[in-house]
Sequence to fold (361 residues):
Amino acid sequence: MKQYSLAIIGLGGMGNWHRELVNEGTRFHNKVILGGFDNLKVTGSFDIRECRQEFALQHGLKTYSSIEELLADPSVDIVLISTPNDVHRSYVIKALEAGKNVVCEKPVALNSGELQEMIDTSIKTGKVFAVHQNRRWDEDYLTIKNIYENKLLGDLFRIESRVHGSRGIPGDWRADPKQGGGMVLDWGVHILDQALQMVPEKVSKVYASLTYITTELVDDGFFVELTFENGLVFIVEVGTRNYINLPRWYVLGFEGTAVIEDFSRKGKIVRIMDYSKNDAIPIRTAAGLTKTMAPRTSETIKEETLPDVKADIKDFYRNFINVMEGKEKLLVSLDSVMRTMKLMEAVFKSAQKGAPIAFEH
Ligand code: NAD
Fold:
């Protein structure tokens, strides 16, 4: 079995996550992903910060003094770009032109024009180029996708996907528009992408607004309403000044409702069992009475657990190597990455216009 060597450019938070995943393993909630691939190892890295070069040495990596030195090393088969977003384009192109296969962190580029240049270079050089849209492996997302695809709640008419935090924009490059900061590029790229991956229909309308609550420099949150051609409305929202989070997912189908509270997939389904039976006990408030909004009783609804799903993020690199060996196609196709990039452009356009816009892609 051929052994592949991976070198990381930009060994910050996410670069190190890749190092851990590939060489050591990673943890989330109470789960552990054991590290070590039979045929892949992170062997080296380059970072402009001296402290990260030292960190690399402490973890047994070879360090390079420049990207050129790294790209000139014939023992490096794959290069991961995990620098701030504005550097992705030039580094991806350099690495492909140096004959390396390239993985790039999300958002792959600042706009669709840059992405097209990268794709053209990968075609010209014949090297594999993939984008780390890792949240396609999130189990909360895959649970809702399962409910949607298998019609577990009948047809869905509304899906709400939210990521809420309270810490504003981190005070690093993410607050700098020139470096590709802002929450649309940071989180929108994940959860807009999930919406497009889940619903195969065309998007007929995009309406978006951006927030600038904690800073005026970049969007620190956004609200997007996507209307799909089948009528499904998909809400995608990010907030960074939310001290109480709304659920990660809230999903309405003709036969029930599902909720997932957080990334740990805590949640439930409530299914309607009997439409005909009237179990409504009117609710009295100080100012009146309502039968319409009366909660249901166990006579007509049933609570269920969420369907089980399994995902293994290591499949990202397994697939990448299989593509290099000509055995598979990319799981994260470049066409799908381009579509998400164009959707983010539509989000900015709609927010600027303050009106819904059509989405042709
Ligand atoms: P970070 O600031 O922690 O790390 C970036 C590293 O790149 C730093 O160590 C910095 O010194 C280095 N760097 C900056 N400019 C460089 C250059 N020109 N050449 C070489 N090194 C350079 O940021 P991060 O959170 O690790 O984000 C890095 C990338 O990963 C971004 O594109 C971000 O969007 C992405 N990211 C992805 C996920 C995900 O889940 N897929 C999560 C977090 C970050």
